[in-house]
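Form 7-S
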Amino acid sequence: MVYLKSSKATDWGKPSLLSRLMQRLSANPDYEKAFPDVSEWLIEFGEDQLPGREIGLNSAGVPVLAGPNERNYGFWLDTNMKLSDFGNEVIDRAFFEEKWNEFYSKNIQQGNQKMSTKSVG
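Output:
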Protein backbone atom coordinates (compact mmCIF):
# COMPACT_ATOMS: atom_id res chain seq x y z
CA MET A 1 0.00 0.00 0.00
CA VAL A 2 1.04 3.57 -0.69
CA TYR A 3 -0.41 6.57 1.16
CA LEU A 4 -0.45 10.11 -0.25
CA LYS A 5 -1.50 13.57 0.81
CA SER A 6 -3.03 15.68 -1.97
CA SER A 7 -4.66 19.06 -2.41
CA LYS A 8 -6.28 18.08 -5.73
CA ALA A 9 -10.05 18.68 -5.90
CA THR A 10 -10.17 21.00 -2.90
CA ASP A 11 -11.59 24.06 -4.62
CA TRP A 12 -15.28 23.28 -4.13
CA GLY A 13 -17.72 26.11 -3.59
CA LYS A 14 -20.75 25.95 -1.36
CA PRO A 15 -23.36 23.62 -2.90
CA SER A 16 -26.22 25.13 -4.90
CA LEU A 17 -29.83 24.02 -4.54
CA LEU A 18 -29.47 21.92 -7.70
CA SER A 19 -26.34 20.18 -6.42
CA ARG A 20 -28.08 19.44 -3.09
CA LEU A 21 -30.94 17.84 -5.01
CA MET A 22 -28.50 15.85 -7.16
CA GLN A 23 -26.76 14.71 -3.97
CA ARG A 24 -29.76 12.54 -3.18
CA LEU A 25 -29.02 10.54 -6.35
CA SER A 26 -25.29 10.43 -5.79
CA ALA A 27 -23.04 7.47 -5.04
CA ASN A 28 -21.77 9.64 -2.17
CA PRO A 29 -24.81 11.12 -0.40
CA ASP A 30 -22.93 12.05 2.80
CA TYR A 31 -19.77 13.21 1.08
CA GLU A 32 -20.94 16.03 -1.13
CA LYS A 33 -22.05 18.28 1.71
CA ALA A 34 -18.50 18.03 3.14
CA PHE A 35 -16.64 18.75 -0.13
CA PRO A 36 -16.43 22.53 0.47
CA ASP A 37 -14.70 21.86 3.80
CA VAL A 38 -11.99 19.58 2.36
CA SER A 39 -8.62 21.31 2.07
CA GLU A 40 -6.52 18.15 1.81
CA TRP A 41 -7.01 14.49 0.93
CA LEU A 42 -5.28 11.43 2.35
CA ILE A 43 -5.51 8.57 -0.13
CA GLU A 44 -4.59 4.90 0.22
CA PHE A 45 -3.56 3.12 -3.00
CA GLY A 46 -3.67 -0.65 -3.38
CA GLU A 47 -1.37 -3.00 -5.26
CA ASP A 48 -3.35 -2.19 -8.42
CA GLN A 49 -2.26 1.48 -8.05
CA LEU A 50 -5.93 2.52 -7.66
CA PRO A 51 -7.40 4.46 -4.73
CA GLY A 52 -8.75 2.20 -2.01
CA ARG A 53 -9.66 4.44 0.92
CA GLU A 54 -9.73 8.20 1.28
CA ILE A 55 -10.04 10.83 3.97
CA GLY A 56 -10.92 14.48 3.50
CA LEU A 57 -9.34 16.85 6.02
CA ASN A 58 -10.43 20.41 6.74
CA SER A 59 -7.98 23.29 7.10
CA ALA A 60 -7.42 22.38 10.78
CA GLY A 61 -6.45 18.81 9.83
CA VAL A 62 -9.70 17.32 11.16
CA PRO A 63 -11.29 14.54 9.08
CA VAL A 64 -14.64 15.65 7.62
CA LEU A 65 -15.25 12.57 5.47
CA ALA A 66 -13.77 9.10 5.08
CA GLY A 67 -14.66 6.18 2.92
CA PRO A 68 -15.74 4.14 1.26
CA ASN A 69 -18.45 2.98 3.61
CA GLU A 70 -21.89 1.45 3.26
CA ARG A 71 -23.44 4.77 2.12
CA ASN A 72 -20.62 6.40 0.15
CA TYR A 73 -18.62 4.86 -2.66
CA GLY A 74 -15.84 7.43 -2.47
CA PHE A 75 -14.71 10.46 -4.44
CA TRP A 76 -11.33 9.22 -5.72
CA LEU A 77 -12.63 5.66 -6.08
CA ASP A 78 -15.17 7.01 -8.54
CA THR A 79 -12.43 8.27 -10.88
CA ASN A 80 -10.07 6.44 -13.22
CA MET A 81 -7.04 8.11 -11.62
CA LYS A 82 -4.08 6.01 -10.54
CA LEU A 83 -1.17 6.59 -8.18
CA SER A 84 0.93 7.95 -11.06
CA ASP A 85 -1.65 10.72 -11.64
CA PHE A 86 -0.97 12.25 -8.23
CA GLY A 87 2.75 12.59 -7.48
CA ASN A 88 2.07 14.26 -4.15
CA GLU A 89 3.53 13.94 -0.68
CA VAL A 90 3.88 10.38 0.58
CA ILE A 91 2.63 9.84 4.13
CA ASP A 92 3.01 6.85 6.41
CA ARG A 93 0.29 4.32 7.05
CA ALA A 94 0.17 5.15 10.78
CA PHE A 95 -0.85 8.76 10.06
CA PHE A 96 -3.54 7.61 7.61
CA GLU A 97 -4.92 5.07 10.09
CA GLU A 98 -4.87 7.67 12.89
CA LYS A 99 -7.05 10.02 10.83
CA TRP A 100 -9.28 7.16 9.66
CA ASN A 101 -9.90 6.07 13.26
CA GLU A 102 -10.39 9.68 14.38
CA PHE A 103 -13.18 10.14 11.84
CA TYR A 104 -15.00 6.91 12.64
CA SER A 105 -14.62 7.11 16.42
CA LYS A 106 -16.07 10.66 16.30
CA ASN A 107 -19.03 9.46 14.24
CA ILE A 108 -19.69 6.49 16.50
CA GLN A 109 -19.61 8.77 19.54
CA GLN A 110 -22.14 11.01 17.81
CA GLY A 111 -24.44 8.03 17.23
CA ASN A 112 -23.80 7.81 13.51
CA GLN A 113 -23.26 4.07 13.46
CA LYS A 114 -24.42 3.74 9.85
CA MET A 115 -20.90 4.61 8.80
CA SER A 116 -19.33 1.16 8.56
CA THR A 117 -15.77 0.96 7.31
CA LYS A 118 -14.43 -0.89 4.33
CA SER A 119 -10.76 -1.65 4.02
CA VAL A 120 -8.68 -2.52 1.01
CA GLY A 121 -6.35 -5.49 1.01
